Amino acid sequence: MRIVGGSLKGRALKAPRSQAIRPTTDRARESLFNILAHSGDLFAEGHSLDGARVIDLFAGTGALGLEALSRGAAYALFVDQSLEGRSLIRENMLTCGVAAKARLFKRDATRLGERGSLAAFDLAFLDPPYDKGLGGKSLEALDGGDWLAPDALVVLEESKDAEIDLPAGFTMLESRAFGGSLLRFLRYSARR
């Protein structure tokens, strides 16, 4: 596993030893970030990856958030509950030298609680374990805890066959298939 683009391109990332963590492949990550860079209608007006605040749920190795930082995001918050995942993320943050603009939370992504004093996030990556119904619950947690900025872009990776009931406040923009995975691009409209 490596960072595939941006200022950190080529940096090796520590990969999981167990099957409990399923990182997004380098190829799928490259495709995802090409879509983000070249699909101007995904980001709402005034939003872009450059300078974005990113939250990476079910972060695993941290590859998605680290890739975003490499490509111009200003800040990333990694959220993972597993000991192995948090260890990988810490090591990969140090390897990439991004500790000053990133944080790691040990938290259940389906029960995030309130955002508190942190600024809201412009871009969210959700890569839950497939076919367990965690994607929809995590979207509800993001909304319920006021984690997302108005018009935030959310990228949800799930199995191609998973059915997701989008909570109120989330609109499907488009989806793209990669092997057995489906990337869903969503827009968040704050319920106020």
Helices and strands, in order, run as HEHEHEEHEEE
Average pLDDT number: 91
The side-by-side strand order for the widest beta sheet comes to 3-2-1-4-5-7-6
**β content, as a range?**
25-35%
Instruction: Sum up the overall morphology in one term.
Output: globular
Number of helices: 4
The main pleated sheet reads as: 7 strands, mixed
Task: Write a brief structural summary.
With 192 residues, this protein is α/β, with parallel strands linked by helices. The chain is built from four helices and seven strands; from the N terminus they run αβαβαββαβββ.
Describe the 3D structure.
- With 192 residues, the protein is of the alpha/beta class.
- Helices cover 24% and strands 26% of the residues.
- The protein has helices spanning 26-38, 63-70, 83-96, 134-144, and strands at residues 53-57, 75-79, 102-105, 121-126, 148-159, 170-178, 181-188.
- It has a 7-stranded mixed sheet, sandwiched between helices.
- Helix 4 (134-144) links the parallel strand 4 and strand 5.
- The longest helix has 14 residues, at 83-96.
- The N and C termini lie far apart (41 Å).
